[in-house]
Amino acid sequence: MRTASYRRRRRTRTATVVATLITTALAVTSCASGGSSDSSGSDKLKIVTSTSMWGSVAKAVGGDAVEVEPVISNDEADPHSYKSTPRDAAKILDADLVIYNGGGYDSFIPQTLSGNGRSVPTVRAVESPHGSSGHEHGHEHSGNEHVWYDLSAVQEMTGKITGKLGELRPAETATFQRSAETFHSRLGELQGRVDRIKSAHGGAQVLATAPVADLLLEQAGLNDITPPSFVHSVESGNDPSAAATARVRDLVKSGRAAVLVHNPQTSSPLTKRIESQAEHAGIPVVEMGESLPEGRTYLEWMGARISKLRTALDNPA
Of 108, 151, 171, 283, which sits most exposed with the smallest number of CB within 10 A? Predict the structure, then answer.
C-alpha cells in the first residue's frame, strides 16, 4: 500500500516507460487478426481487469458471455507498484471492456489507456482521485482506495459492470441483470454477517499493521487504535518512527486490542515482529490482504475474511 505522494512520484518516473509500452502494444495489436475475438472465433466479450478481485466480480455478472483476464493474478503482487509489460498493454488495448479499481491503486491501467488513440470502454470503482469521494449515496472512503472491503461499494460496482455489459451486448441485458441480482443477494448475506459482528462486538478495539481492511472494520463497528503515524509510514514503504513503533508495542502488551489485522502484501521484518508479539500476548492475528488467491471467488474470499474476524473476536485470549 502506498501514499498519494508516493504514487505521484512513481507516475512521474514511469511516464516514459508507459509511453513506450503503449507504442509497443499498438504495434502488437495491429498485427493481431482483426477484432477482440480469440482465434477460435469465440463471440464472448473480452474483459480485462486490473486484478483478479474485480475479475471475479465481472465473471459473476457476465457468466458464459464473457472471457475475463486479469492483468495481475499473482496474489503476492502489489498493484500500486506493478509495472505493466507490452503484452499487458496489448491485452488492455484489445479488450472489449476494461475494469479497474481507480483511486491511484492500479494507475498502470489509465496510463496505458490515455493517449493511445483507441477508445476502450471502461468501468472503475473509484471515480475520483485517490479514493477521496464517496458513492452517489454519499458513502465516504476517506482516501482509502481498497473499496472491495466495502460491500456497498462492491454492490455499486456490480451495477456499473452490469450496465456496461448491457450496452455492449443488449440482447443479453436481462441475463446480466439476473446474475447481478444473484450476486447482490450473496453480498447481502455477507453484509448481514458483518452487521452481526457489529451487534456482538461493536466498539471493540483493534490494531492493524496497514489500513487495507479499514472499510470493513468500520462497517463492523470496530475501533482501530493504531497510531496514524505508524500506518502512514507502512503505507509509504518506510520504517515507522521509534516512538510510533514503541506505542504499537505498548498497545500489544496492554491487551487492549481484541485483534491484530495484518496485510501480508505489506509485510516487513517490523510488522512480522509485531505479529509475533501479538500472538505471544494472546491477541488473535487475522490476515486481510488485497489480492484474490488463485481459484477463489470474491464471495468465497470475503466470506472467509469475515468468518476469521468473527472467530477471532468470539474467542479472546
Answer: 171
